[in-house]
Write a structure and sequence with these properties.
Structural class: alpha+beta
Largest sheet: 5 strands, antiparallel
Shape: elongated
Number of strands: 26
Order of helices and strands: HEEEEEEEEEEEEEEEEHEEEEEEEEHEEH
Radius of gyration: 41 Å
Length: 447
């Protein structure tokens, strides 16, 4: 039997027909896949929208927490700030910082004098590198023997004795100190305070570090690590007990070959007791001693056994003196003054002497304003995003109008959420205060 081969055109027609049939079959078989892909795209789109909504609501929730008084991030409480107006044009007089809880008030400050450190000099020598031919011992802070005594022993401080200074620590300086004690939630605590009223850094009870903070008092002896040992009674009456301490001090040996330069270096390398320490320098052929601290309680303490010839004061130690609303204040320091105006740290400027300034501590609304702005911004972002995703929009081309539904336009749950957000902003609250709605403080919804 013979097979007849048709014309080339017949063969091409047959191929096209066969290809069309295959395409139709593939398309038919692909429809479920296409539907699934379309559904997947819709799910991914909705997931993305949900993610954006969650991010907006999380941000709104964070902003709202700043408006709730029981939340840790509450920002609507009264906050204070300090500002200074100089009474002298071109003068700084002082700068200040205030804690948020500083009481508001107005304060006139009149500065009489700034705190200064003591300084003394020797006579002039031709060359600071020439041997002075001086011999002897130069003592700083003491003369080799320490002593301690309690003014009147108390329940909390029964006695004091001297002890070795721990390596790496400075001995406390000669002067009057007090042991202050308090009861904190049934725990007796103490600290050591100097004549200026500043807490002194002493060894922690566990010996791990040094601190000026209050620490727990225990019965028995307590070695401060700085030359003084306290005998404490943890059940004693709280209060303040004075004590006196005389520092042992440190010394350097001066030999005939020493020059101004070598002597100054020896003095500066010595581990002097705190409170009366000084540094040596050379100015115009003179050796100069300058106290490292200002104030009358911090005069230099030394014994010149080598006859180096330090004369009278070039500058006398003095306290800063000023008045605040007519009340006199005397302090050893010019800066870091935290005990003058409650909640305010005062720093007297170098040009303050003989000048006046006005300190104002007023309410600071910056923090609360920022919190309200954050709330408004985050609310608008969340509400606008929901509105856009639920909107029914239209566009007209000639006589044809096309309507487009947002991906959440038929979702009743998000409609309810949007309405709840709207109602929360416009609701009237029942409370004992003068404000019952956000509109009372200038916030309203633009309908």
């Amino acid at each position: 039997m013979a097979i007849n081969i048709g014309s080339v055109s017949d063969m091409k027609g047959l191929a096209v027909s066969f290809q069309s049939s295959i395409t139709a079959i593939v398309d038919a078989e692909s429809e479920p896949i296409k539907r699934i892909q379309t559904q997947r795209d819709e799910v991914n789109l909705r997931k993305s929208i949900y993610t954006d909504i969650k991010s907006n609501l999380d941000a709104l929730q964070s902003a709202v927490s700043g408006l709730i008084s029981t939340e840790g991030g509450y920002a609507m409480g009264q906050v204070s700030k300090a500002s200074v107006a100089s009474g002298t044009s071109g003068a700084t007089v002082m700068t200040t910082t205030a804690t948020e809880s500083a009481p508001v008030g107005e304060f006139d400050v009149v500065v009489t004098a700034l705190a200064k450190s003591q300084s003394r000099t020797t006579g002039v020598v031709a060359n600071s590198n020439l041997a002075l031919g001086k011999t002897g011992t130069f003592w700083m802070g003491g003369t080799g023997t320490a002593a301690a005594s309690v003014g009147t022993p108390s329940d909390i401080l029964t006695d004091v004795t001297t002890s070795d200074v721990v390596s790496g620590q400075h001995e406390i300086g000669t002067g009057t100190y007090s042991v202050q004690s308090r009861d904190l939630s049934g725990v007796r605590q103490f600290r050591l305070v100097d004549a200026d009223g500043n807490a002194v850094s002493i060894r922690n009870a566990d010996g791990s570090a040094y601190t000026a903070n209050w620490q727990t008092a225990t019965d028995g002896t307590f070695d401060t690590g700085r030359g003084l040992t306290l005998a404490l009674n943890s059940s004693g009456i709280t209060g303040s007990t004075d004590l006196s301490y005389t520092a042992k001090g440190v010394s350097v040996d001066i030999s005939a070959s020493d020059t101004q330069q070598t002597i100054a270096a020896k003095i500066n390398a010595a581990n002097q007791p705190d409170g009366h320490a000084f540094k040596a320098s050379i100015v115009s052929g003179r050796m100069v001693l300058n106290g490292t601290q200002t104030g009358v309680n911090h005069t230099m303490t030394y014994t010149d056994g080598a006859g180096l010839g330090f004369g009278a004061d070039v500058q006398t130690a003095q306290n800063a003196s000023f008045t605040v609303n007519g009340l006199s204040v005397s302090t050893a320091n010019n800066t870091g003054l935290t005990e003058v105006v409650e909640g305010v740290t005062i720093n007297l400027a170098a040009d303050a002497e003989g000048k006046t300034a006005h300190l104002s501590v007023a309410a600071n609304v910056d923090k609360s304003t920022a919190a309200m702005n954050a709330f408004v911004t985050k609310f608008n972002a969340a509400f606008t995003h929901l509105t856009q995703k639920m909107a029914l929009t239209s566009s007209t081309n000639g006589t044809t109008t096309t309507y487009t539904r947002g991906p959440l336009s038929s979702d009743q749950g998000f409609r309810t959420l949007r309405m709840d957000l709207f109602n929360q902003v416009n609701k009237i609250a029942t409370n004992s205060g003068s404000f019952t709605s956000l509109a009372n403080i200038g916030l309203s919804y633009d309908k």
